[in-house]
Write a structure and sequence with these properties.
The chain has 437 residues and is mostly helical. The protein contains 20 helices and four strands.
Length: 437
């Protein structure tokens, strides 16, 4: 047994990453706690497309488990996966409701996008895209994602709310859920200042317990059984997706997922110090194969596109550095497959402080940007601000790419931009033109 443990530590490079089993397990639990909401949010969105809510709940847990276990065991990265927010909304409101496409056919389109991912990865094209990102934008993406998840945390906590006149405004700080979130924020901050390694997890658990004691948790579990997955598993209509001219939909699933995943990968990898000395991502092909297989698995089981989750940053902030973090998260999603309704009691007020704290931690990468050089500062700033304000990692990355390329060209430094960057810039411009119709 001891020999098996030692081999596992060598495989996951514990010594080089300066980590331990305790740290990795706590990090995996922290990541799961911050993203467990997807077990209920994803089914509620896809249910509006006509999909059975219990079946989608099971499919969500299964897809997240498979994706996270692959990412942890095969790619050896502390990045968890699950059906993506935004893409599930596109699936329901744009494709099914907006275009009148049956959900079986829409699932077929998701499957085809996953297969396209797999082919592009096998051909090395996705790896080329990842490697084409200018190293100067890595730090900007990480900082921008920090702002993004902090904004999500502030919104979930009720500290920031929408406002018709000013877009956003201060929420009601006396609301019970907001007071709980503020308590969790202060507690987690104090624990971090005291040097407690499990500060984020303890903050979530303590706030969750306080929410239960004060009766602020609203829990209305739906009838649920693992066997319910049969209503969506293998119910996709691939022939229908091919025969109805839905290649445009497949391209959207492919494009958004690709650059959201790249942005998440860069942000988490940068924060965890997982890049090599040449600013490249080791084993990037394994990462890309893992998320492609996860999307295919999701479509086969009955859910929308599976993506890398930026909430993985919470696990990284808790000390997670190896694939064990993602494996622990994946195992917890497997457990959730059987007892999903129990996780419905985790309130946003308990997880929001973790997102805000992690967001602040990720802002440290902004110090690595050469702000005195306009050719670097402007693309970096547009990337950073574009991610939270457009609520899209892909959009922020697009702003940075376009600005980077145009400024290089206008300064007469055309040879400093490789052909892949030119190609991606063109694709981003085409995408913005298409979205502006």
């Amino acid at each position: 047994m001891r020999q098996l443990i030692v081999r596992a530590e060598q495989y996951f490079e514990f010594a080089a990453l300066r980590t331990s089993w305790r740290t990795e397990i706590l990090a995996g639990l922290t990541t799961f706690m911050t993203m467990a909401y997807i077990i209920f949010v994803n089914p509620s969105i896809l249910h509006e497309a006509g999909m059975p809510i219990a079946a989608v709940t099971a499919a969500t847990c299964l897809a997240a488990a498979v994706g996270s276990l692959l990412m942890g065991g095969f790619a050896r990265y502390p990045i968890a996966l699950a059906p993506g927010m935004g893409l599930n909304a596109y699936f329901t409101y744009s494709v099914v409701k907006g275009m009148g496409i049956d959900w079986h056919v829409a699932l077929g389109a998701v499957f085809l996008s996953g297969v396209a991912f797999l082919v592009l990865t096998a051909l090395g094209i996705r790896q080329m895209i990842v490697n084409a990102i200018p190293s100067e934008l890595y730090s900007a993406v990480a900082a921008g994602v920090g702002l993004f998840i902090a904004f999500i945390g502030l919104r979930n906590a009720g500290i920031v709310v929408s406002n018709a006149a000013t877009t956003v405004a201060l929420g009601n700080l006396r609301a019970p859920a907001t007071l709980l979130a503020l308590f969790g924020l202060i507690l987690t901050g104090a624990l971090l200042c005291a040097g407690v390694r499990a500060a984020i997890l303890l903050g979530v658990l303590t706030t969750w317990l306080l929410a239960a004691l004060t009766g602020t948790i609203q829990w209305h579990p739906e009838p649920y059984s693992v066997a319910s997955i049969s209503a969506t598993a293998l119910q996709l209509d691939i022939r229908g997706a091919l025969g109805r001219g839905l290649l445009e939909i497949v391209f959207v699933f492919l494009f958004v997922d690709l650059f959201d995943n790249v942005g998440t990968l860069v942000a988490v990898g940068k924060k965890a110090g997982l890049f090599d000395e040449t600013h490249k991502i080791p084993r990037v092909n394994r990462i890309l194969f893992s998320d492609a297989i996860a999307t295919i698995t999701g479509a086969l089981s009955g859910t929308s596109t599976v993506v890398s989750y930026i909430e993985s940053s919470a696990g990284v902030a808790a000390g997670g550095r190896s694939g064990v973090t993602a494996i622990v998260t994946g195992l917890l999603f497997l457990v959730a497959l059987f007892v999903a309704p129990l996780f419905g009691v985790i309130p946003e007020s308990a997880t929001a402080p973790a997102l805000i704290i992690v967001g602040s931690m990720m802002m440290t990468t902004a110090a690595e940007i050469e702000w005195t050089d306009p050719g670097i500062a402007i693309p970096a700033f547009l990337t950073m601000i574009g991610i939270p304000l457009t609520f899209s990692i892909a959009n922020g990355l697009a702003f940075g790419f376009i600005a980077w390329t145009l400024l290089k060209v206008l300064r007469g430094r055309l040879r400093e931009v490789n052909w892949m960057v030119y190609l991606l810039t063109g694709l981003f411009l085409i995408r913005f033109w298409y979205l502006g119709k």
